[in-house]
Amino acid sequence: MGGASRGTKEGMDRMARQTGIGEATVGAGLLVVDADAAHARALAEALQALSIYPSIATAGNGREALEILRRNGCEIVLADLASLSDIASSGEDAVARLVRVADGALVIALAEGDSVSAAVGAMRAGAHDYLAKPVNGELLRTRLWDLWQRHGRGPRPTAAPASPAPAGPDFGGFVGRSSAMQVVYEQIGRVAGSSAPVFITGESGTGKDVCAEALHAHGPRAGKRLVAVNCAAIPRDLMESELFGVARGAFTGAHEDRKGAAELADGGTLFLDEIGELDLSLQSKLLRFLQTGTLSRLGESGTRKVDVRVICATNRNPMQLIQERKFREDLFYRLHVLPIHLPPLRQRPSDVLPLARYFLAHYAREEHKSFTGFSREAEARLSAAEWPGNVRQLQNLVRRLVVMFDGGEIGHDMLDIADIESRRPASGGEPAPTVSRRAVQPMWQQEQRIIEEAIAAFGGNISLAAAALEISPSTIYRKRQSWAEMAMAG
């Protein structure tokens, strides 16, 4: 689509004359799908200014987009969700159809306003990213770089987007501007004002405690206390008194009344970290507290009314804990009202260097030292690492560097000394395991195996398997259909 409305041929020709793009220039470049002529023109001009793509095609609706993709193919598709309404009744189904026909191209969904539901729906249907309209060139440049680093598809941007000096966190206590973190920030902003429970999931080291603090700070209870309890760090026999308090004389040594974490958080927020480690007997008492809003101190017969917002977090799969009868299903659904998932660092590689620079500046101030940054070789190594320990592993590495060295530029040799987690065993030690090239399966086969094993683990229940894998049931049905089609074609 070009300078006229609804993607007419005349409009495309006029846009091609004005911006040097249009249907005639379709090749191995980028496709913009948008019925909004003004936004399509602005987006095309922004893309041209990036000087990355040899050609840019446009379409005013879904049918035109599918025709272009079938005829020519593209490496990247930017598609306005409202403009795809002619190919499916729902935005999610329209994106899924576009993704199938795009045949491996990067698909970026566009929509008016910051909508969590639209973003989640589009990415659940197969889109690689989501952007709110209007899209500016610098944001698009950052996202395309992020996508290239994450997926390795499409033409590589000529250079990484400039990184500003690490003045402070980008949101709440988080550092990172990747698309994955933008979705997290938006979710926090939308749910912070509610009193409903929040259930945070994510691998160890992804910042679940930072997320809880951000939810508290951006909500109406920010003036009250945030009380955190690590359910994995407190012995089971002390957990009840830690959570609900103790009445004087309840046991030997209880010489005075003591409030528990729930009472201390009255009016504020109670954060239960590693909720999956909570003993089953105490889970029933926590459920009663959530249902009634009242508690009894250990050794006390009466009840006390408490008003708290409960946030919990776990690095374990809650559906698996339920399956293993280690977590009450009714408690899970009482807590799992507003879910937030924190992505691992390996899924947002564009955030690695901003995080490293932020930690370097922070710990250099703390240790009264002066560092100029990281060398190019050190930055390349940091960006390429997998970070199984996520942000916490990177944070520990940078702190170790600051403590071990006096200042200046951090080079590759300094990383070799400080990066003890990634250090290979010395000669003569246990040899590192090797994997035969023939043993490496294509990604779709590994994905199929993981999904089918999850379905089998839940006795064929696709809904439970999807919840455990943190994807939608429709994704499983769609992938099963594509596997069947590939089998028939083979």
> Rg from C-alpha positions?
26 Å
- What count of helical segments does DSSP give? 20
Helix content: 40-55%
Overall residue-averaged pLDDT value: 79
Instruction: Please identify the structural class as seen in this structure.
Output: alpha/beta
CATH topology term of the largest domain:
Rossmann fold
Query: Segments where pLDDT lies below 50 for 5+ residues?
Result: 1-28, 425-438
Major sheet, described briefly? 5 strands, parallel
| Strands side by side in the biggest sheet | 2-1-3-4-5
Counting DSSP E segments of at least 2 residues, the number of strands comes to 14
Distance linking N and C termini:
37 Å
Query: Mind telling me the CATH class of the largest domain?
Result: Alpha Beta
Domain count, please report it: 4
CATH superfamily of the largest domain: P-loop containing nucleotide triphosphate hydrolases
**Broad shape:** globular
- Estimate what percentage of residues fall within beta strands: 5-15%
CATH architecture of the largest domain: 3-Layer(aba) Sandwich
